[in-house]
Fold:
Amino acid sequence: MARDSRPSPVYGNSSGSRVDMALITWDDHGMQSLGQASRTSVPRLPLTCLLFVASATAGFVNAQTSTARRTVWDGVYTEAQAARGVTAFGQKCSGCHALAADGKAPLVGEAFWKSFSQKTVGELLEFVRSNMPNGNPGSLDEATYRDIVAVMLKSNGFPAGNTELGQNTIGDVQIVPKDGSTELPANALVRVVGCLTRSGTDWVVTNATTPERAERVPPAGEDATRPLGKRTMALKFVVTRLDALTGSRVAVNGLLIGAGGVDGINVTAVNRVAQKCP
Structure:
C-alpha cells in the first residue's frame, strides 16, 4: 500500500458481528416587496451610505465566521498557578510521575501527546482528578487539581496567560500541536470506521474516517450511517480471521502506527456496524 505522503505533525453497536482482538441567509422581505410594488422610482442611496453598509455587513460576517477554537497556546493558566502546582505535584504526585520527558511515568513530551492530544484541558483535569493520587483519587481539593494541571501544561511548553485555569474556562480548550495539526500521534488508542477488504494478503479499511480517540464512543447506530472518509488504512497484527466481515462497514479499534496511522493500525478489535459498505 502506498505510504501516506502527508507530513507528520510537529508536537512541542449497532448490532452485528464482533471480533475481539457567512454566507448569511438574509430574510430580505423588504427587497421582495420592492419587486412586487408598482413601478415607481426607488430612491438611490448615496455612495458613502452604500460603502458604510458594505463595511458593516463585512464586519458582521467576519464576526460570525472568524471565531477560532481556543487551544492550549492561548494561555489558559497563570504563572502563579503553575508555581503552586509545583509544590502540590512535589507533595502528591512526584512519587509516581515525573514532570519531564524521561523518568518514571513521565507527563511531558511524547507520553503527554500520546494520552491527551486532541482532547480538551477539561478532559485532562477530569483524568487527573479521577486517577490521582495513586490509590486515593479525588482526595485533593479542586483548586489543587487545577494547580497540578497548570504545571503540567507549563512543563509541556504551553504559555501562561492572565486568567487562572478554572473549571468553567477550560471545557472547550483543545490540546493540539502548535501547528494546529489534528492528526493523533503514534501509539494513540483510536477507532476508525470504513469498508473492510483485502489488499493482496493484507486486510485494509478503505473509505476510512479520520482516526479519533477510542474512548469517545458514538451513540448507538451512528457508525452505520455516518459519512465515511477517503483514507485507506492497513490493519496490522490481525490474529483472528476476518473473512466473514469482508465487504462490511466496520469499526476498528487499535493503536496508531506512525502519526495519524500513516503505517496502519495495530488492531485490538473489529466490529461490523453495517452489512454493506459504503
